[in-house]
Specification:
Largest sheet: 6 strands, mixed
Keywords: Hydrolase, Protease, Serine protease, Signal
Number of domains: 3
GO molecular function: endopeptidase activity; serine-type peptidase activity
InterPro entries: ClpP/crotonase-like_dom_sf, CtpA/B_N, PDZ, PDZ_sf, Peptidase_S41A, Tail-specific_protease
Distance between the termini: 85 Å
CATH architecture of the largest domain: Alpha-Beta Complex
CATH superfamily of the largest domain: 2-enoyl-CoA Hydratase, Chain A, domain 1
Number of helices: 12
Organism: Halomonas aestuarii
GO cellular component, one term: outer membrane-bounded periplasmic space
Length: 435
């Protein structure tokens, strides 16, 4: 539609006059040969810019309520980013602070990592020991409402902002779980979420367990410290690295964790359009656990940085990856500050495992697939009779309650139990080869 002449510049004319000179400056320095080769790609579509300016002016003049220019432009920027991929977004000053808090490991909320999948707000994973975790929320639960607000028209950041709040306040989430026909409502009480990303314990003498719940700035050092503590009780014969329901986090932290088990070789590399988005990360010589047999647990809630670690250890043949297919987030986001104190979170690269595998929308396939479950003995069976059930049995002098608690965990967590069994089998094979 042709532009109408006007006595004075309209909003539409002002926008075109601002945008077009900028576009010309961007392509003016190109050599003639480059202009000939890429003119079709680099030239901005003038007609679409004029259409955008016309839409802007129509809204300003005809929308039922008056809307400020600043709000319209900000919404336009949000729209541009939201249509690219689920992880690119516009960040105002509050959202900048929220992002900083999440990487530092303390914020107020319910302890849930979310993303957008097929336009629907979706649980990536609940964070350990948080209200969402205790309420039983699971990876790929769809969140239909936050209190009384439908989520289908919310951006990802708007949804996160709604779920965060003052500790002690309540929030209602309406979720739809895969395989269920009717939604369910869950009421959670917000807490101050202080997340220590690494936990460790001995499952049995010589067999350690490392749980990494997310990747924060100091996660790599925490993993090294945890390995040292486990070794205080004696040499390790095997180690389980649990990355299940780990939503990812800081890229460098994932490199540091993989480096704790590798003494050489590539960990991950990234590829993008900008020169600074192409990076390669390799392991250093100093390694916390270079030779300890290793099983890495993953599931559908293992995403991003967790997949980097699992993929690196798998490609380097450093450990056996066990569990179920991971989430499949193989993109890298950069935070780009703007002059107004706000910023962009923009996807600028894809990452690849050492063997060149892209994780994006595919995930990591485990070496050994073990579905989550629990082994139970039928009530009518007499197979669960043990020495301790017999009258007059002799008691072990050093029986400890902690051992029985770990045994109960292994019975309830089938994947963890199978990981421990595999480590024992690997040790048996290693001893036989040595003999």
């Amino acid at each position: 539609m042709p532009l109408r002449p006007a006595a004075r510049p309209t909003v539409m004319h002002r926008l075109v006059s601002v945008l077009l000179p900028t576009a010309l400056l961007a392509i003016a320095p190109l050599p003639v040969a480059a202009q000939d080769a890429s003119s079709q790609d680099d030239a901005l579509p003038v007609a679409e810019i004029q259409a955008f300016a016309e839409v802007f002016e129509r809204i300003k003049r005809a929308y039922v309520e008056e809307v400020e220019d600043k709000e319209l432009l900000r919404n336009a920027m949000r729209g541009m980013l939201s249509e690219l991929d689920p992880h690119s977004t516009y960040l105002d000053s509050e959202e900048f602070e929220s992002l900083r808090e999440s990487t530092q490991g303390e914020f107020g909320g319910v302890g849930i990592e979310v993303g957008m999948e097929d336009g629907q707000l979706t649980v990536i994973t609940p964070i350990d020991d948080t209200p969402a975790f205790r309420a039983g929320l699971q990876s790929r639960d769809r969140i239909l409402r936050i209190d009384d607000t439908p989520t289908d028209r919310l951006s990802l950041q708007e949804a996160v902002n709604l779920m965060r709040g003052e500790p002690g306040t309540q929030i209602r989430l309406t979720i739809l779980r895969q395989g269920e026909n009717a939604p369910r409502e869950v009421t959670l009480t917000r807490e101050v979420i202080r997340t220590r990303s690494v936990k460790s314990e001995l499952l049995e003498p010589g067999y350690g367990y490392l749980r990494v719940s997310q990747f924060q700035n100091r996660t790599g050092q925490q993993v090294v410290d945890a390995i040292r503590q486990l070794e205080d009780d004696g040499p390790l014969d095997g180690l389980v690295l649990d990355l299940r329901n780990n939503p990812g986090g800081v890229l460098q932290a994932s490199v540091d964790v993989a480096d704790a088990f590798l003494d050489s070789g590539l960990i991950v590399y990234t590829e993008g359009r900008l020169p600074d988005s192409e990076m390669r990360f390799s392991a250093g010589r100093e390694t916390a656990a270079p030779d300890v047999p290793l099983v890495v647990l993953i599931n559908g809630g293992s995403a991003s940085a967790a997949e980097i670690v699992a993929g690196a250890l798998q490609d380097q043949r450093r450990g056996v990856v066990m569990g179920t297919q991971s989430f499949g987030k193989g993109s890298v986001q950069q935070i780009m500050p703007l002059g107004n104190g706000e910023g962009l979170k923009l996807t600028t690269a894809l990452y690849f495992t050492p063997d060149g595998r892209s994780i994006q929308a595919q995930g990591i396939a485990p070496d050994v697939e073990v579905i989550r479950g629990r082994l139970e003995v039928a009530e009518s069976s007499n197979l669960d009779v043990r020495e301790s059930d017999l009258a007059g049995h002799l008691r072990a002098p050093d029986a400890q309650r902690a051992t029985s608690e770990v045994s109960q965990r292994l019975r309830e967590d089938y994947q963890l139990g199978e990981a421990l069994n595999l480590l024992k089998a690997l040790n048996v094979l290693s001893q036989r080869r040595g003999g």
